[in-house]
């Protein structure tokens, strides 16, 4: 089975293709940690492997390099997704081309100015609207008598075209604009609300209202991007400058973080302490809990890290177990950047229509970590958070229960499924 490392920035619809395909095939796709768009992909080491410096990019477990999102998705897919006959495979390639040539340029030309990523030009946008209309009309006719784009089951064609339509459905196609394309709407939602897609994208919401053009946005984005460039230059210079002798536990990354309050990783502003999160995660992944839990307590540094119990506040709204698991998976996905200095085991207790979600979280710092970044604030308010005292026996028991996926919730519902954030 395919396995390897995917280089991408978060929420990249192109990377979604491979990530969703991997959900179906079971391929092991690890997202490269610490990837910084614009930096990592411009480094010599990256360019040596991927000369165009673009993402997504994939490094197979046996050291081969693949670029182009459709090719990466193909590599990690299974036979069903790749098409079972020559004609199916040819049709899938046809839809790859359709997504990249007929939808994507028009989608970018319409969406990007509204997001402030491109200058607004009325003529270009009007042209893009026409192109989107043409593409959606063709797609709508094709889907009049079909559930999926190719054959009778979902393939890479559906994944590729649906992910390429994400921005249009997210920012542009408000109800009146999407009304003429009912077959496309039905198919899009079928693809995007499969558990395999939800695990990657989270709970996708169709546009209520088309994003409005705001001239200030473009100026803001421009300003931010030149400030970012300046910072990058500064950072380069700082690296070049001869350094003063440093205190033992302050490394270069900490210095940069200190010089740069709006660091990419809010945890970087906190002292690292002695708890080596990575080595605990490795131990947890590779060893039985009889080894990893004692290891956790031996290494845990209460001065710089804290342990929390998080309990989902609306259990009465939980229905199907798989949907609740997707809720947890979606939250993890949205907290991607928190992984570096956090770990969690969140469990679902009970069964369909009678379940609760709760978990043990460990992160750097003594306060609720979610408030450190606006990106981390989508889900946390749906949970009740309690800071646990690491010295108490109750905390030891909870850590043991949640790390080893056993026991019941407070009302006696049995452990059903768990998900690890690492
Ligand atoms: N056709 C490629 C396009 C990849 C691409 O353009 N990636 C953009 C980000 S979404 C990129 O890495 N740009 C960096 C650059 O151009 O320097 C694919 O589908 O993978």
TrEMBL record:
Example of a GO MF term: translation elongation factor activity
Biased composition (Basic and acidic residues): 222-249
CDD domains hit by this protein: GST_C_EF1Bgamma_like, GST_N_EF1Bgamma
Residue span(s) of domain GST N-terminal: 2-84
Renumbered residue ranges of the record's region Disordered: 222-252
GST C-terminal domain sequence ranges: 85-218
EF-1-gamma C-terminal domain location: 263-422
GO CC list: cytoplasm; nucleus
Keyword annotations: Elongation factor, Protein biosynthesis
Top-level taxon: Eukaryota
InterPro entries: EF-GSTs, EF1B_G_C, EF1B_G_C_sf, Glutathione-S-Trfase_C-like, Glutathione-S-Trfase_C_sf, Glutathione_S-Trfase, Glutathione_S-Trfase_N, GST_C
The protein, known as: Elongation factor 1-gamma
Organism expressing this protein natively: Neodiprion lecontei
